[in-house]
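Session log. Operator J.P. requested a structure for one protein chain; no other inputs attached. Running the standard single-chain path with C-alpha cell output.
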Amino acid sequence: MLTLIALGAFLLLLAGVPMWMIFLSLAIAAMAWKGVSMEVAVQGLTGSIDKLVLLAVPGFIFAGGVMGQGGMSKRLIDWVSALIGRVPGGLPLTTITAAELFGAISGSSAATVAALGKILYPALRENGYNERFSLGLVTSSGAIAIIIPPSITMILFAVMTNASIGKLFLAGVLPGVVVGLCAAVYCVWYALKQNITSGRTWSLREILSTSRQVVWTLGAPGVIFGGIYGGFTTPTEAAMAVSVYAVFVCVFIYRELSWAQVWTITRETAVLSAKIFIIVAASGVFSWILTAEQAPQKFVGLISDQSLSPVMILLLVNLVLLLVGMFLDPNSAVILFTPLLWPIAQYAGVDLIHFGIIMTVNLAIGMFSPPFGLNIFVSCSIFNVSSSRVVAGLAPFFFIYFIALMIITYLPALSLALPRRLMG
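Structure written below.
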C-alpha cells in the first residue's frame, strides 16, 4: 500500500496537481480500499485545523505584508546601510543584515525577497556588483526569514509534533545568525577579490537620522518577542498584536499606507492563509493513512537494519530534505515529512527542538533551490529576468548555506542553548 501511495503521489505531483488535493485524494482512495468510513476523513479534515496556534499564521503573513508596503522595510535598509555600508562588502552585508531583521518581523521568505530586492538589487548593480552575484545574493538572503523567528514553518512543525513554539523561536536565533555570518564572509571575500569599494563614508548625522526613523520599525520584534517571552501573550496573540502595531505605524506614523492598501493586503493574506490551512487539513487525513500503514515504524526499522551511526542518519535526513525542498514548498514539506522523519531522528537521539531547526534550515535552502524554489520565481518576476539567470548566481550561495546547515546539524548547542537557558 505504501508503495502505491508513494507512486501515486509522485505521478500526481508531476501532473501539477496541488498538494492538498494529492493528500486528500490518495487518503480517500486508500480509505475506500480498506473499507474505512468517510467519517474518519471528515474528522481528520476538521481536527487538523482546530488548533488555536494556527491563527498565528495569518497574523504574521498580514504583518509582513503591511511592513513591506508601508515603509518599514525601506527605513530598515537605510538604517543598516548607514551603520555598516562603509565596510568592505558593505552593500551585500546590508542585504544580509536587512534580511535577518526583516525576517524577525515578517517570517516570510518570498516577502523578504520582494520587499528588500526592489531596493537593494538596483543598488548592488549600481555599486559594481555583477548581475549573477546580485541576483544570487538577494534570492538566497530571503531564505533567512524562515530560520529567524517568527517562522511559519516552525509554527507548522510545532502543530505536527506538539513542540513548544516558544522554544522553537528561541532555537532559530543562533542558527539564523550562523547562516548570515557564513554568507557575510563570502560577500566580504567577493568584494575584496573584485576590488569593489562602497564609496561611502560614515556620517553621524545620517546614523542619527535613520536611527530616529527606524525606531518604530524595530518596535515590531519587541512586540513579538517581548510579548511571548515576557509572559504577556501567546504566539497567536503576539501575531495579532504585531499586526495591529504594523497598521498603526504605517498608516498613522509613517503615513505611507492607505486603508485601501490595508484591505488589499487583508485579502491577499486570506487567500494565502487559506492555501496553507487547506494543506494542513488535507494532511490530517493523509497522516491517518500513514499511521494505519505504520509508515514511521517501517522507516525506523529500515534505518535500524542498516546499523547507521547518528552522524550518517542525520546526513541522510539532510539529503532527503534538501531533495524534497527542490520540489515542495516548506509548508507542504514540513507537513508531509515530519511524521516520517522525526521518528528516524528520534531513533538517532536527536532533540525535538534541534530537529525542528534542522528541518527548517533545510527547507529554507529549498526556497532558492531549482527547479521549483519559490524565491527563484519571485526574483524572476520583480527583476524581469529568466530563471536560468537567477539560478546561475545561486550556486555559491547554495554551497555556503550547505556549510551552515552542517554546522547547525552537528552542533546542537547552537539550537538548544537559548531555549535551555531562558526556558529550561
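Operator note: The first helix runs from residue 2 to 14.
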